[in-house]
Amino acid sequence: ASSRLYFRVNFADGSRRILMDDEGCRNKIREFAELSDFFRRHGIHTPQVFAADFEHGFLLLEDLGDATFTRLLDKGVNEEYLYTLATEALIKIVAVTERPDCCRELTRQRLIDDICFFADWYFPMAAGYSLTEKQRRQFVDLVAAKADMAYKVPNRIVLWDYHVDNIMLPDFCWHCAVIDFQDALWGPLTYDIMSLLEDARREVSPAVVRKMKERFLQSLPEVSAEDFADSFAFL
């Protein structure tokens, strides 16, 4: 879904890099570079940026290999093991209370607008007809009345696209690396754990979902189980 292209560069000394080519400079590669450095300073593994040409849309990146969590799961690697690694990375991220300069706020209105994709795009496709203006207003009012539930937990960095296609297990590492974060926002800390466990791309076993939610919540002594559940449920 992106215009970015990736090339593996093999050097004579045996080292490798990844060249990201952002055709037309349509993606947030400045934010990618800024956030990669920010996360690495906080002990979160993201691709190191070795060189950048923002004017022409090029980044030279650390090569993390090919082992996305999607590929590992398809090969039969233990689901609970991988989701534990992914959850531990999120625990590190939500422990960071500093807000990066490039992270805009994930506002209540942004959440409502995103949910309206259901009313404006999915419903007409599925039903064969569009909602009337009155029906759409009723839908938005119902969503808006509950939107504050999302903010019953503190705001932290929200990666916004945290799922198994965007998490990797680099060679010789016991922890995971995150590769998609340029659209990060500042919003409810439940968003990414919800995105990971409620992923539309695959069914996560109920036992793993329960264990990961418990593991994540245990790292947040300032958040009650009820507030966590409400925020997670709304998102």
Look at the helices and sheets and give the structural class: alpha+beta
Radius of gyration: 19 Å
Total of helices = 8
Order of helices and strands: EEHEEHHEHHEEEEHHH
User: What is the 3D form?
Assistant: globular
| Largest beta-sheet details | 4 strands, antiparallel
Uncertain segments: none
pLDDT averaged residue by residue: 95
Number of strands: 9
Helix content, binned percent: 40-55%
> Strand percentage, roughly?
15-25%
Question: How far is the first residue's CA from the last residue's CA?
Answer: 23 Å
What is the spatial order of strands in the main beta sheet?
A: 1-2-4-3
Question: What are the salient characteristics of this protein?
Answer:
9 strands, alpha+beta, globular, three-stranded mixed β-sheet, 235 residues, four-stranded antiparallel β-sheet
